[in-house]
Amino acid sequence: MFSHVSSHSDPDRLRSGVLRYLAQFSHAVFLDSNTAANGPIPVTGVTYDWIAAAGVSEIFYPAKEPFLELNSFLKRQQTAGNWVFGHVCYDFKNEIEKLHSHHNPAMNFATLQFFVPEQLFIMKQGQLTIYNRTNNTAEILQAIQTSEKEIDPSHSSLRLVQLPSKDAYLKTIGTILHHISRGDIYEMNYCHQVAAEGVIDPVFIYEKLVTESPNPFAAFYKSDNKFLLCASPERYLKKSGNTVLSQPIKGTAARDADPVQDTLNKNHLAKSEKERSENVMIVDLVRNDLSKHALPGSVKVDELFGVYTFRKVHQLISTVSCQVDKGTSFADLLQATFPMGSMTGAPKVRAMQIIEEAENFKRELYSGTIGYISPEGDFDFNVVIRSIFYDAEAHKIYLAAGGAITAASIPEKEFEETLIKLAPQLKVLNIPLSAIFSTEKEGRHAYNDRRFFRVTKNKF
Questions:
Q1: pLDDT by residue (tens digit) across 84-94?
Q2: What is the pTM of this model?
Q3: Residues annotated catalytic, as ranges
């Protein structure tokens, strides 16, 4: 059953109430376009202001034949007219290629998980529609109104337990550049991780995060005691009818408080040969991935090197699309395109092998994807970056950031780019940027250096 509900007199309060309400369920998701923040909507726009789901009517985990099983599950749900929500971890790559992940998991997210919700909330152009299998709409709205008042911004002081080392980062970049010089790869996405301990209110932190970075592919996601608080600017894959598109981001420049300098940063990004070369390599990779299911001659680059301005950064975004047969499913396209090129490199398989050697943590849901599949078989999935991961049972918090390494990379600049990407998450957790290096001898030098603060003070 479903009910239409008129626009709330206070949309922000309604949104907050829905988030609080969702957090009571074992499984819930809030996919957030942040349209109210007037943020950039890359190229194609978004289908919903936000879409949310709560409770589990049915849940799917793969067993022996993940793609066959996922296809069967999705076809059954489509026949029944059900929406499906869920995630795919980066480490699902091992089901697609002959790869492995030897690092221990920190969060223990299921590698792939989808669920049919008991309740669905769709906000579109100020109109809220509620679909539910259990309570009536009046009871749900009453529960949401009650949740609106349950805001608890308190959280404990966080203790940093895993810090990135600048020395180690620069050394690893040297190894990656050696692989590039030998011709093993042309480009590779290299990431490092920050970990902390403490207690946070995930809803409160998520709302702070998307206020700080109101990006169009944000998500609040709960799976038992595990939370993803995501402010992603990047779309992985969208299907609408027979049209499929991907919008890889490669190329980042910091915003600046000075409008003149901000414009210079944006123009430099648009003209940077290094950033454009990073972007076009991944565009070629995406074109190749999509061609595996595209109708002949239908793969095209709708936009190359589009410059989009977000609250904290300027990004270089390209759009690649194709046409597919009517029966082409999410599982088919997942097998052809995952993991996304922007978080791996080129050639993709060799880049993923080197990523496993170079990085010291298991990515899990970081650089994976989360999204929805409609009863018509349309879908929209993000790239899980610019995120906070929270284990509410273990009181552990994880962040990660990275960037593309090419032959033109300057290691110090690549390191600085990861700080730009980490800064919003650290800010909402009340962790000073300098604190993550407070135990590093080189870190104390780097972050007490007046030149560093002069260069970066307006970026974060």
A1: 999 999 999 99
A2: 0.92
A3: 234, 250
